[in-house]
Design goal:
Blueprint: E1 2-4, H1 13-32, E2 37-41, H2 54-68, E3 75-79, H3 83-91, E4 96-99, H4 108-114, E5 119-122, H5 140-157, E6 165-168, H6 177-185, H7 187-191, E7 198-200, H8 205-211, H9 219-231, E8 236-238, H10 242-256
The structure holds ligand 8Y7.
Ligand 8Y7 binds at residues 41, 45-46, 79, 98, 100, 120, 122, 168, 170-171, 198, 200, 204, 238.
């Protein structure tokens, strides 16, 4: 899964067109490099990020999705927690809902029930505004797995088929370095829950903390983390740097195909 950066502030018509053009180019390039899914989001969920209004999120995501729809040999995923964005994105051709709030926002579970799309349920402790101030767990593996399975139950109770669900432990979302490393060390546990497992560690602070490097120098660390996750059974890896990651995963696939 390749992360598509949607430029937030192109207000003039020309700017909007350029935004769509460059998004399409970026997406095509990621697909050429081996991405099977392109993830588009209009709400930054980085630690401390300011909330974005529903209209702003729609304005950022939907035009780009419309520009990409039918143009890519890939599934388009919409990174959103907002029911109206899910609805418009599905109508515009999205094939996956990637919700970092696991359908906990008002109306999201209801929308997902009516929708036909698969949904990735991610674990986050707290909110993007506060999640990195002193996150605590009794046991990060138990707590995250329990949360995800409770969200699966809520989905099933709402009438959403299990077959539509993917799970994600949410690296960096209300976790210390220790929590993140522990989740990666024991990722098999999440892979064994019985659902496709999605993970995203690309360029995140856990990579920066281990390497003591800024975000623009985290490529090799991110590829290493992606490889470890895939080896532990992750099915989908969300990354910024598709080409280098796909190379690493091809080596793993070749080795795993060997007797
Ligand atoms: C993740 C994600 C982000 C992740 C899933 C970033 C939208 C933060 N991270 N979605 N989104 N999993 N499913 O640094 O780990 O890319 S945004």
């Amino acid at each position: 899964m390749g992360v598509l950066n949607v430029t937030p502030d192109s207000f003039s018509d020309g700017g909007r067109f350029l935004g769509r053009e460059s998004a399409l180019q970026q997406a095509v390039s990621m697909v050429q490099q081996g991405a099977a899914i392109i993830d588009i989001g209009g709400e930054s969920t980085r630690p401390g990020a300011a909330p974005v209004s529903e209209q702003e999120e729609l304005d950022r995501v939907i035009p780009v999705l419309e520009a990409l729809s039918g143009q890519l040999d890939a599934v388009i995923s919409v990174d959103t927690s907002t029911p109206a964005v899910m609805r418009e994105a599905e109508a515009a051709g999205a094939g996956l809902i990637n919700d970092v709030r696991a359908l906990l926002r008002e109306g999201a579970l209801d929308y997902a029930r009516q929708s036909a799309l698969p949904v990735c349920l991610m674990h986050m402790q707290g909110t993007p505004q506060s999640m990195q101030d002193d996150p605590r767990y009794q046991d990060v593996l138990d707590d995250v797995a329990d949360f995800l399975l409770r969200r699966v139950e809520a989905c099933q109770a709402a009438g959403i088929a299990r077959e539509r669900l993917l799970l994600d432990p949410g690296f960096g979302f209300g976790k210390t370095l220790h929590h993140n490393l522990s989740m990666l060390r024991h990722l098999q546990r999440f892979a064994q829950l019985g659902f496709p497992l999605l993970v995203g560690m690309s360029r995140k602070s856990m990579i920066g903390a281990v390497l003591d490097k800024p975000v623009e120098q985290r490529l090799h660390g991110s590829v290493a983390a992606a490889l470890l996750a895939a080896q532990a059974g992750a099915h989908i890896i969300r990354v910024h740097d598709v080409g280098p990651t796909v190379d690493a995963l091809k080596i793993l696939a070749a080795v795993q195909a060997q007797e």
